[in-house]
Description:
Layout: H1 12-46, H2 51-76, H3 81-99, H4 105-119, H5 122-133, H6 139-168, H7 171-183, H8 185-191, H9 193-201, H10 210-214, H11 217-247, H12 252-282, H13 287-311, H14 315-360, H15 362-377, H16 382-401
Helix pairs in contact: 1-2, 1-3, 1-5, 1-6, 1-7, 1-11, 2-4, 2-5, 2-14, 2-15, 3-4, 3-5, 3-7, 5-6, 5-14, 6-7, 6-12, 6-14, 11-12, 11-14, 11-15, 11-16, 12-14, 13-14, 13-16
Amino acid sequence: MATAAPIARASDARIAAVVGLLGLSVLLNYVDRGAIGLAAPLMKQELNLSATGFGFAVSAFFWVYAPLCLVVGWMCDRFCVYRLFAIGVALWAVATLLTGFVGGLVSLIVLRLVLGLGESIAFPGSSKIFAAEVPAAHRGSANAVVAAALAFGPAVGTLAGGTILAAWGWRPIFWIFGAVTLLWLIPWQTVAAPLRGASLRQATVDPYPLARIADQRAVWLMGVGHFATNYGFYFLLTWLPLFLVKTQGYSIAQMTVLTTLGLTVQGVTALVMGRISDRWVAGGIDEGRMRRSLMVWGQAIAAAALAMVYFADGATELGAVLVVAGIASGLTSTNLFAIGQIFAGPRAAGGWIGLQNAIGNCAGIVGPIATGLIVDYLGGYGYAFALTAAVPALGALWWWKVIPPIHQVCD
């Protein structure tokens, strides 16, 4: 059997720069992805969208994003991941910018589909690069950069978007966010150029077969765990601004501060736990058991916090609950992809994370539509919060009892 040429690691400084830019890309990914939730209080009214219609528009992103994560993961194991990343970012930036010109539900859904197409590169691509270039002793910190960006993206987006929304309306949010994302391509072309050249010179003559990844029971179980982790996070990202402004009576400024608070805590928690987990691994602790425990605790805390959001009385109590939710999300987001990378190993990381992420992001398809239907036909958000809290509660049991022992299974 032919074997892939061994990968020569780049310098520590260049890899650090690449990890930083990948983190920044994920930050922009979630700024752009979450812009629709920020725009919702004014967009929904101007475009005359029902809660169900808005839910379909949000869900449309995932109709393409979830299945394409599998395809893109397969491509990352076979083609130059650095070039694929640039193409994906350019595509989603343009889709974001053009969303500022939509005139109704149909055009909004079309651009959400294109956004999902572009953003599908983010996690399979970054995981492929991390598995190939980042040593195990730094796995937690590298994934923590992405996990923190996953939180800081919505935080930055909420703070900037809320300010833009209050001053100029909802359309400039998309124009500005899309233009800023396009600027990311400039440093990426420079920093990734040597790695891109090495990737092109090292032909992937023996990519890990996707069928062999799909034969692994663990990847499907990880996908379900990923679903449970995503469900609550996507609910807060998409529906919390609308719930706070339209149902709870908070101003846009108050909504911006409260939402940003929880997301900022999530990002800080991810960075801190990434560094701590690396120290534990360096100290000889079993990495798989440690990361499983963090996922169980994160899911359990998230379930309790999500239920408490609905019953929070006043801004102070709500802020405290969102801080707890942020801590929980910081624990899970740091470890979710790191565990997948452990199972997969360097050769299969792209395809594994692509399949895992495809299953996990079905939460983005089901959740927004379910919430919209519940709000429209059951008369409020109470049942929606109950369902959203139940999913991560079941997820905690899943990570504890169902996920198999965590070690590399793809040779």
